[in-house]
Amino acid sequence: MRAETSMSGASGTIMAAEQPVHVKLRGVYKTYNSKRGDIHALDNINLDIREGEFLSLLGPSGCGKSTLLRCLAGLEKISGGGVQVHGKDIDGPPENMGIVFQRDMLLDWRTVLENVLLPLEFRRLPKQEYIEPALKLLETFGLRRSADRYPWELSGGMRQRAAICRALLDDPSLLLMDEPFGALDAITRDNLNIELQRIWTQTNKTILFITHSINEAILLSSRVAVMARDPGRIEEIVEIDLPRPRTLAMRESPDFIRYSAHVRAIFERLGTFIG
């Protein structure tokens, strides 16, 4: 992995490296067995995700972004190395974690409110105590009037906002997001980017966000971990020093364009081109 890159922007504000580490990955690798031989999905992943940080994994399809997220979420076993959350080794889904996938995974035969409350059933928590917090979340995301509607009655953006509400219901300190806006149209995606930034700023959650989009990664992130493939590895980590709150118009600023050009140069060096 190349050294971490810090490019000073207009604000001069850089997240202090002394912040406590929420997630630690050391020497993580992952292989899959197949009839054609082992598939080396991840190689020597070393990464600290700081408390309250918004960190994006950015890379092309097949570079192991989702595999890395699933290993961190305890949904897949690593083949070697170590993963810790708050200093504890991961041997299953860690406590106080929420996860949002690219597909909203809503159940069409349950109302929006019932979908948001669904995780309580798996954790055997009292549903009645969470109805009011769930309604407040839906209000925050502009879905309060849709609480009694069914997913098939909603737009794609509304469905994904409901999925985010579900992930936030138990107020997790760690939120994992696997290309949550990748299937949405550009306008809806932009709106949800701004909404997610607002939620993160207000709650100070640690967020690991997977994306194919350079602009999305720069707009949202404190740092961007650029991944290469064959095998999946972290090529470089870029610290994003831009003022908050960030606006969509900022994408046209000289500092933003400079970050974008730097990240594109990394991919060009790797022979990979992404948007």
Task: Walk me through what this model shows.
With 275 residues, the chain is an alpha/beta fold. It folds into 2 domains: 1-11 and 19-96 and 174-275, P-loop containing nucleotide triphosphate hydrolases (Rossmann fold); 107-171, no CATH class. The chain is built from 7 helices and 11 strands. It has a 7-stranded mixed β-sheet with strand order 1-11-10-4-9-8-7, with helices on both faces. It has a 4-stranded antiparallel β-sheet with strand order 3-2-5-6, with helices on one face.
Quick recap:
This protein has 275 residues and is of the alpha/beta class. It has helices at 65-72, 112-123, 131-140, 156-168, 186-203, 214-220, 254-270; strands at residues 5-7, 21-32, 39-50, 54-58, 80-85, 88-89, 97-100, 174-178, 206-211, 223-228, 233-240. Mean pLDDT is 89; it is low at 8-16.
Question: What topology emerges from the helices and strands here?
Answer:
Elements: E1 5-7, E2 21-32, E3 39-50, E4 54-58, H1 65-72, E5 80-85, E6 88-89, E7 97-100, H2 112-123, H3 131-140, H4 156-168, E8 174-178, H5 186-203, E9 206-211, H6 214-220, E10 223-228, E11 233-240, H7 254-270
Parallel strand pairs: 1-11, 4-9, 4-10, 7-8, 8-9
Antiparallel strand pairs: 2-3, 2-5, 5-6, 10-11
Helix pairs in contact: 2-4, 6-7
